[in-house]
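During the no-cost extension, the postdoctoral fellow (Dr. R.K.) reprocessed legacy sequence entries with the updated structure-token encoder. One reprocessed record is reproduced below for audit purposes.
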Amino acid sequence: MPRRYDAKTFDMAHLRKTAERLKSWGKWGPNDELGTLNYVTPDDVAAAARLIRKGKIFSLALPYDSNGPQKGLWGNRHNPVHTMLATGTDAVAGRQDKGGIRYADDAVSMPLQCGTQWDALGHIFYDDKMWNGYDAKLVDSNGAAKNGIEKTKARMVGRGVMLDVARFCKQDYLEDGMAITIDDLIATAKAQKVEVKRGDFVIVRTGQMGQRLRSGEWGGYAGGDAPGLAFETCEWIHKSEIAAICTDTWGCEVRPNETKDAFQPWHWVGDPDDGPDHGRDFLSRGACRGLRSGQGVRIFLLRAALADQQGRGISDQPDGNQIAGLWLGREPKRRRIKPFSA
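Re-encoded structure tokens follow.
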């Protein structure tokens, strides 16, 4: 069972020791900007596509509107602001007739971290460096010259695995401040008959987002206390060689943090040193409803169509992270091909 955040605390020395031990700079060459997405091969993508059996599609993205979770608690982030630039009332009033066409246009202003998102590897720095040893100063007022989110836009597809920790613990949602340990992840996977493989996209469900949506009040969701991954899970992520990990919480890791020496210490190690992509604020509620089959098995093709086509961003609002085509039950076994005989 998950433990309280303060049941196992650590200091900055432990954080730095862990960061140095798990550092993967240069693993895919000095010019790499993909990190652990390199684990996903074309064969992996093809195998993930073969998981599709029912053809159902579930979006994992929050609506980008004024009802989002942001309250300015951290980083001056705000909910999307939707502005109409041209409307049907303009058209009916004849204001557009000189242009020869009647139309509606709109615009949205928002931080790229305001809702469901993937973090780029240029999002978090370890001292003066980011992923693969690039200088943090390469992220300036023009955006990220290295490790921008656009580098990943053609690579966010593969075998997805849902680890429903809340359900494994027989709870609707985990309480704030509960840390999900390595043992919890392993036990959840075993109980739900899921094998986490190299190159997987892992979604960890705590139930927090669903609880806030049901209550109709976000409270301190964005930047406040939350259930989440314990710092030690950095070791599991590194050893498992997964492509990415995401949760239904604001910051993936448990809050309050397990140390007072750093803010979001799990991020210190993950983003800049080990190289896994992190996803946040994933709407797992609808997906879980579709995935539940009594057996609790959750294996699927995950596709994330990233919206940042211009580039140099340090986060991205996915155009609907999607579970495409659910496979409920055990993965299909490959049929044996009989040896050819003349």
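The longest helix spans residues 12-22. The chain has two domains: 3-76+112-327, 80-110. The remaining legacy entries will be reprocessed before the final report is submitted.
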